[in-house]
Amino acid sequence: MIYTGNATEDAPAERGWLLGHFQPDGDVRHSADVEIKWGVHTKGERRAEWVVGERRTALLLLVSGRFRLEFRDRDVVLAEQGDYVVWGVGEDHSWEAEEESVVMTVRWPSVPGYAVR
After folding, report:
1. Which of these, 45, 42, 40, 1, lies nearest to 23 by C-alpha position?
2. What is the b/e burial string over 64-98, where b = at least 16 CB atoms within 10 angstroms of the residue's CB?
3. Percent of the chain with pLDDT over 70
4. What are the start-end ranges of the H helices in 1-117?
5. For 80-98, how does the pLDDT look when each residue is reduced to its tens digit (9 = 90+)?
6. Rg (CA), the chain
7. CB 76 within 8 A of CB 87
8. Residue 100 CA, distance from chain mean position
C-alpha cells in the first residue's frame, strides 16, 4: 500500500494528526504503534489546557518559527529549525507558539480512547 499527500492539506481532517489508530482500518496511515502530527500554529496560540497523566512518549520537532514547550519543572524553547524535545510517560505539558510555527509531533504508542487533539 502507498499513500501520497501533503501534510498541510491532510492535517486538518484529524486536527493535525496524519498517522495513528484513528485512521481507518486498512489505510496505510492506520497504526497502533505511532502517531504523527503536522502542527501549524499562529503566533500566540496556546494549548487550551495542560495534558495531564500522559501515557505516551513524544517527540516534538521544530520545522519553522519559535515554539515553547511547558513542563511542570521547566520550559523548553525550540528556536532553530531542527530543534526538538522528547518527553516520557507522565510528563504533564502544555505549549505556546511564540512566533508563527510549524512543528511535527511523533508520539507512541497510538492509544485508542484518547481524543485526537
Report:
1. 1
2. ebbbbbeeeeeebebeeeeeebebeeebebbbbbb
3. 96
4. 7-10
5. 999 999 999 999 999 999 9
6. 14
7. no
8. 16
Separation of alpha carbons 44 and 46, rounded Å:
6
Instruction: Retrieve residue 4's grid coordinates.
Output: 501520497
**β-bridge mates for residue 38, sequence order:** 104
> DSSP character for 13?
G
- Among the four given CATH numbers 3.40.630.30, 1.10.630.10, 3.90.1150.10, 2.60.120.10, the one describing domain 36-108: 2.60.120.10
Rounded Cα–Cα distance for residues 67 and 44 (Å): 10
How many helical (H) and strand (E) elements, i.e. helices and strands, does the chain have?
1, 8
Q: What are the cell numbers at 8? A: 498541510
